[in-house]
Amino acid sequence: MWQLNKQQSGPFYSQLITLIEAKIASGELLPGEKLPPERKLAKELDVNRSTVARAFDELKARGILVAVQGSGTHVNEEKWGVAAVQTNWRHYVQKGAFNHEIPYIRKMAEVSTEADVIDLATGELPLELAPSLSMPEMSWQTFLQEENENELLGYMPLRKTIRDELKEEQELVVKTEQILVTSGAQQALFLITQCLLAPFDAIAIEAPSYFYSLSLFQSAGLRIFALPMDEEGVKTEELKQLYHKHRIKMVFVNPTFQNPTGRVMSEARRLEFVKTCSVLHIPIVEDDPFGPLTYKSGQPITPLKKLDEENVLYIGSLSKVLGSTTRIGFLVGPVAVVRRLAAARQEMDFGLSIFPQVLANQVLSRKAYKTHIQNLHVILMERAKTLTDALTTYAPEILFEKPVGGFHLWVELPLETIQKSDFDALLREKLLVMPGYLFGVKENKLRLSFAQINQDTAVAAAKILQAFYEGLRK
């Protein structure tokens, strides 16, 4: 909805500029999205066409909007994450990097508190799947003594355990001095964007990706360019083009059980991608929260880090296997880089508390942890099948990619386009999903998370989705 406050002081074109910036910041206007024609928008706002033209011209001059020949005015596709440069104090509250609330997410949070909600949006391990492990019997004095082993890079026993886990499960050989313990994977991403990149640096992020829903890239003022992917993973030729056009400084990928698609980058594409980045001197950030959650036994999936130890920063997380309250992640990289990030983290928050690190190390060191992971494989595979069977039976026209690991099912509604507001109909039916536009792609895709599903909710969700699709098709 387009509306100006006619009672507010100041020129209308300035108000319109602020309105457009706010819509971009909140996600109401996405990169590449077309704005209404000047004449139509002027009529809707009850202002002169010259007012709209002036606002558009200023935003074009700043690179926020672009004119596309024969197609009108669009939001610049290169403006993912770039916060508008503002020196006017009255805008600061609205322009804060971590204050951009997406309307759909706000509505979904409101619905989630109601009874009988079917939650296929939350991408976290439910409580009943968290490991049933008892707390270690440790005195307060013991905890204080363990603090002596809490170094700049984190608790040494935990770093040794992570090192051993990576070697055993991923066949990835690293040293403890290459491992930085973090308070979750997002802290690792935050440290990378704040310490290794500068405002207006160009980065490439695979599309679709959950990275597009994170405000931390915006807080760093980075220019984000979508890197298309197919069934085998990111397209390396597209990366070459982006690099030569925009001088990409870093690329962010989630190659194993990718969020939201659930895809696994093929071995051949991994080799090709790593080689391309090495030749172009583009560092890779490999986010691997779902690595342990494969449904198939046999040869482990090769991390990108194993293929190029020097050029890849590897991020892992324990929250997907131990539960969302386990705010422990880790980053593996060259010693100099890891120490730089650790020093920066120390300045920001004085290091990481010893308590979650000691507890995480206790859990990972027990034989029961291996059993927990094996049980997770079986349960998640069963729940994935429960959802796909329900869709096949009750929503046969809806397309999906069968998952082989992780939590997510990537679904396509065979329609040309869907308006963002159309997804409100699902909220009214108390079905929570994640629309594709939140991940940087067209609106006819959506992500369904099946970690919390059962037979009844799967069938109910499939019937709601089929009715939703039939309603849009009419």
UniProtKB/TrEMBL annotation:
Gene3D superfamilies: Aspartate Aminotransferase, domain 1 (3.90.1150.10), Type I PLP-dependent aspartate aminotransferase-like (Major domain) (3.40.640.10), Winged helix-like DNA-binding domain superfamily/Winged helix DNA-binding domain (1.10.10.10)
Domain HTH gntR-type: 10-78
Classification via PANTHER family: HTH-TYPE TRANSCRIPTIONAL REGULATORY PROTEIN GABR (PTHR46577), TRANSCRIPTIONAL REGULATORY PROTEIN (PTHR46577:SF2)
Pfam family of the protein (one): Aminotran_1_2
Protein family according to the UniProt entry: In the C-terminal section; belongs to the class-I pyridoxal-phosphate-dependent aminotransferase family.
Domain of life per record: Bacteria
Keywords carried by this UniProt record: Aminotransferase, DNA-binding, Pyridoxal phosphate, Transcription, Transcription regulation, Transferase
Taxonomy of the source species: Bacteria, Bacillati, Bacillota, Bacilli, Bacillales
Name this polypeptide is given: PLP-dependent aminotransferase family protein
Family matches, as PROSITE patterns: HTH_GNTR (PS50949)
MF annotations from Gene Ontology: DNA binding; DNA-binding transcription factor activity; pyridoxal phosphate binding; transaminase activity
Cofactor(s) demanded: pyridoxal 5'-phosphate
CDD domains the record matches: AAT_like (cd00609), WHTH_GntR (cd07377)
Organism from which the protein derives: Listeria fleischmannii
